[in-house]
Structures are given as structure tokens and as C-alpha cells.
Amino acid sequence: MKNLLIIGARGFGREIYNLALQCPGYKVEYQIKGFLDDKKNALNDFTCYPPIVNSVEDYVVCDNDVFVCALGDIQYKKKYIQIIKDKGGDFITLIHPSANIHIDSKIGVGSIVLQNATLGSGSIVGDFALIQVSTIIGHDVKVGNYSRIDCHVVCTGGAIIEDEVTIYTSAVINQNVRVEKGACVGAVSFVLRRVKEYTTVHGNPAVRLN
Ligand SMILES: CC(C)(COP(=O)(O)OP(=O)(O)OC[C@H]1O[C@@H](n2cnc3c(N)ncnc32)[C@H](O)[C@@H]1OP(=O)(O)O)[C@@H](O)C(=O)NCCC(=O)NCCS
Hints:
This protein is α/β, with parallel strands linked by helices. The chain folds into two domains: 2-92, Rossmann fold (3-Layer(aba) Sandwich); 94-203, Hexapeptide repeat proteins (UDP N-Acetylglucosamine Acyltransferase, domain 1, 3 Solenoid). It is 12% helix and 29% strand. The protein is built from two helices and 23 strands. It has an eight-stranded mixed β-sheet with strand order 5-8-11-14-17-20-22-23, with no helix packed on it. It has a six-stranded parallel β-sheet with strand order 6-9-12-15-18-21, with no helix packed on it. Strands 7-10-13-16-19 form a five-stranded parallel β-sheet, with no helix packed on it. A hairpin with a 4-residue loop joins strand 22 (200-202) and strand 23 (207-208). The longest helix is centred in the middle third of the chain and has 13 residues, at 74-86. The N and C termini lie far apart (50 Å). 39% of the residues are buried. Coenzyme A binds at residues 150, 168-169, 184, 186-189, 200, 202-203, 209. This is Acetyltransferase. The active site is at 139 (proton acceptor). Belongs to the transferase hexapeptide repeat family. Residues 3-82 form the PglD N-terminal domain.
């Protein structure tokens, strides 16, 4: 049995703990050892959660440990995943059983797929990506490494979401549109055209935020 450690014990960390309890691997492939977070009192106001074992920096990776990263900010996510990787830690992929995963879709290591999300036919999701609740990744869509797709987003057929992209709640990405590396799409936006790397767009139709 593997011992799962969740990186981040804040709000999203608690969400991912609950997800891990509901995934098919729980008590079959892994049990939950606790959280890694440098804020030792992050769970003081909450009951029902396992302990904060240590900070990511100070934690010594043990045999049978596996990890999942519950940090929303992509730069922090990259930083703390790299620290664990440098210590030889392995990451697992968590997919909620209610997710609709088409047989020819692919998903990389360390990624997280939450309740009622869809990964359509021929879609490819990279490593350490986040596909939030009720989000639809349409047919033949590509989602790059570390990208974060929030709740109720629709990436329609053939859209390309490059690495390290953030797409906030309820945005829609039009067919075959490319969102380039490091870009950000504001909540409730409709993206009709290419989004250039490291820019933020918002609105309907989405325009660049100055
Ligand atoms: C796009 C976003 C990232 C920009 O944030 P920001 O850089 O702090 O920008 P501001 O809030 O200062 O807004 C700047 C302008 O853009 C507008 N704007 C910002 N986000 C917008 C959006 N999603 N749709 C339409 N207009 C938006 C604001 O009204 C403001 O307009 P003004 O200058 O005429 O007053 C942010 O507004 C957003 O959409 N956040 C997503 C929130 C969310 O879903 N979080 C999920 C957490 S789990």
C-alpha cells in the first residue's frame, strides 16, 4: 500500500483530500498519510483531516510515499513539485469516478480530474494539469503540462491549451483556438481567437487585459 501526501493544506488541499477519499485507488492502492505545508496551523480550524506532516522543503521522502500537488497557483505548483521530484518522490494521478473519460483520451502523471469532468475522444491532458469540477475537455483538445482549467469551463473541439495556462471559471474556448503558454483567461469569457503567451484576456468576446 502506498502512502499519499498532499502538497498544500489550504482550501484546495482540503478539496483534494476529499477527492482522494472518493477515488478508486483509496484503500486499494494508497492510504492518506497527511499534508505537506509550511503553515503548520493551516488545519487548526478544521476537523476530520489528517495531520500536516512537515513542510515540502524539510520532508524526507520515504519508501512507498506518493504525492499529489494541491496548489492552484502554477508557479508555486511547479516549484513544490520540483522539490519533491528532486528528492526522488513519485506523483500519482487522481481521477474522480464520476468523470467521463473517453477510451482514447490520455492523461499524464500527477494530473487531477474532479467530479463530472469530461475528457472527450482523442483529448490529451499533460502532466500535473488540473481539470476542475464539471469542466468539458472536448474531442481532440490538448491541455499542456501544469495547466489549470477551473470549474465549468468548456474547451471545444480541437482547442489547444499550451503549458502553464490558467483558465478561470466558466470560460469557453472556441473550436481549434490556441491558448499559448502561460496565458490566463478570465472567468466567464468566450475566447474566439489565439491568446498570446503570458497575456490575460477576459470578456465576451475575450479581449486583452491591459
Ligand atoms: C481576469 C482576471 C484574472 C483579472 O484579474 P485582475 O488582473 O486583478 O484584473 P481586475 O480585477 O483589476 O480587472 C481589470 C478590469 O477587467 C475587468 N474584468 C476582470 N475580469 C473580468 C472578467 N472575467 N470578465 C469581464 N471583465 C473582467 C474588470 O471589470 C476591470 O474593468 P475596469 O478596468 O473597466 O474596471 C480576474 O478578473 C478573473 O477573471 N479572475 C477569475 C476568478 C475566478 O474564477 N477564480 C476561481 C478561483 S477558484
